[in-house]
Amino acid sequence: MKWIAIALFAAVALLLPFFAGDFYVNLASQIYIAAIFALSLNLLVGFGGMTSLGHASYLGVAAYVSALMTTRYGLHHGAAALISILGTVAMAAFFGLIALRATGLGFLMITLALSQVLWGLAYRMSNITNGDNGITGITRPEPFGISLESPAAFYWFALITAVIAFVMMTVFVSSSFGSSLKGVRDQPRRMAALGFNPWMVRWITFVYAGFWGAISGLLYVYYNKYIHPTSLSTTSSAEALLGVIAGGSGTLAGPAVGAALVLLLKNYVSAYVERWNMLLGLVFLFIVLVMPEGIVPGLQKLAARLRRRSS
Amino acid sequence: MNVPSSSLALEVTDLNKAFGGLKVTQGVSLSIRPGERRLIIGPNGAGKTTLFNQISGDLRPNSGRIRMFGEDVTRLSPYQRAHRGLSRTYQIITLFGGDTLEHNVTLGLLGLLPSRWQMWRPLSSYRHLVTEAHRTLDSVGLLHLAGHSVSELAYGEKRRLELAMALAQKPRVLLLDEPLAGLSDGERATVKALVASISKDTTVVMIEHDMDTALDLAETVTLLNYGRVIVDGERDQVIADERTREVYLGA
Q: A177: which chain B residues are within 8 Å (Cβ-Cβ)?
């Protein structure tokens, strides 16, 4: 079942640019970016039991820093990306110190508040961020001299990054540190009694999730060549959280599937239905009622049941 | 007792803890020698588990000192105390329900090793940890269930797994919070034999209600009531004491 899914995805992902039009290739690129973002949020929500409503901070800040460095200060893309990633990770380290003073609902509220501060700054500090007009005139990098201007070229760039991100995060949660993380999620008190430092485990994960949030932010700004305060908004954080929960939090592939679903609804369906948010709500309601653990665990259960019946 | 404090496994001095106006620990002092088997008894609400939680670091006392092998651990976090050789079990079973028995015990082993920070190698690839976990599971008679999920276990087996996780760490001081609670007679005998077989390198402090079983395991007994130490001393001495009968029989 797992291997069939992987093979199917590989076949579609590798063949897509050869038969699909630009619209679909671009849509797929956006899905990969959203998937990296959702996977990084899932490290917190699914594996760490830390439900964050401010994860857009990392995507947004990384995107803004890179945009400012290249357009305003004329920095080379490589240097701008490095500064952007380091800055965002440092911010995650600092935000983690604040947010991890609490767990559960308190943690959620602090992450929400911190992201609202950034969103407000992006709006109000218009001498730097250009406020509501956003930053335009951003270019795409040219890794190894390869132009990423065409939809297909960018598609490969996004796909490779997404695969690396998926593998790296899978290795992270499967490692012995990942076992500590899941342990701290399930039984923090017992974990502390066994010699684990629950706070430190959570904080390291928080910073690591910030790192992948930054990577998705860079891809996001390269893709759109434009950045606006809405990318830092609570809506942006909530959409990703919705994707994680819909796909199956705490699973490896779930958040990617959920992110793809949210993005498809947003970009594809909104062309036909004006109130796509309402449709998203209905789809989410359906998932919660039929597959309360999310799409991926739901399908796994369904497959197991079918197999049992056929044997 | 005039024993120099550095030769005591656990020394609690004038410990006080209150929740609001409720004084749950009042001036409790204990001196426990290395290798000793100490039983802590007392009626419900006597403050036994609260005392354990302060020794393990889950709760901060309002005043007083806790020393392990002469070192002041009063202000240390639970995980720091674990690294100094303290392990505990819980009255309310606290296991990783979705994971296998093997995984549960391996986590117990991992907690004290630097590899708990390691971010690329799966826990199951540490063969020596798995072997060690199997050995511990074997010692509590659960080896045949190593690959099963904790959720499949019967209550008595979960109690034994609780014990296995703590024992795997080879603690210097082991706190057992009602290891016999809710067990059938047969399981009681099994767990009793397990506790009796713990190496003398480990100091055991045990809270237990079942006096018939637990008294055989104890060398010394502390009777708590309303957060105070009522009687403290050799087992037979405490049992014979008038105040023990008073607390337990209400005479």
A: 116-119
